[in-house]
């Protein structure tokens, strides 16, 4: 699979010609000002929770692509009420076979509300099993024991984890999370966008290396083959 980082917690996964875009927050992010959103051709938009820094560009990207929105019932309903009808609701513990592979919605420990303050349902992560690989997109979360169940059920190739601390887990807990889910690869997200989540990238890599993990930190717009 190919993974492209679009800043903050937004990544695109491409596998066998299908593009999955997670938590699009691009246009409000000064660090991603060079990204041309009109060039994004997502087939699916997966949303972990309702905070503005994870949904800001859903409507604009949907208008260009009609990508199917996958999220919890509350988020899907909120967007459908705005006219974004192509959507698939899920909830924690449920899984669904899509044309690209299987998605299971898993627990995340965080909060969730829409920009207007209304209830956004419970925050979540996703385990996605593709034809060629399996990955865990944790969403915004603290470290929690349920992550161990992911490692028991799936063979995770890479975990896409928040490492900015303060609002989510930091690098120390991300290393523990990777242990829980059974992978040695961490793709870091949710760092450096705001002052509260600025990190020392060199130190983060040292912490990961000490924990026998490979921490992948890439430039915004960069693509890796996993």
Automatic annotation (TrEMBL):
Q: Does the keyword Hydrolase apply?
A: yes
Domain Metallo-beta-lactamase: residue ranges: 7-190
Q: Which UniProt keywords apply?
A: Hydrolase
Question: What Gene3D superfamilies does the database record attribute to this sequence?
Answer: Ribonuclease Z/Hydroxyacylglutathione hydrolase-like
| Pfam annotation, one family | Lactamase_B_3
**Gene Ontology MF, one:** hydrolase activity
Hydrolase as a keyword of this entry, yes or no, is yes
Cross-referenced InterPro entries: Metallo-B-lactamas, RibonucZ/Hydroxyglut_hydro, UPF0173, UPF0173_UPF0282_UlaG_hydrolase
Family listed? Belongs to the UPF0173 family.
This protein is called what? UPF0173 metal-dependent hydrolase QQ008_17865
Organism of origin is Splendidivirga corallicola
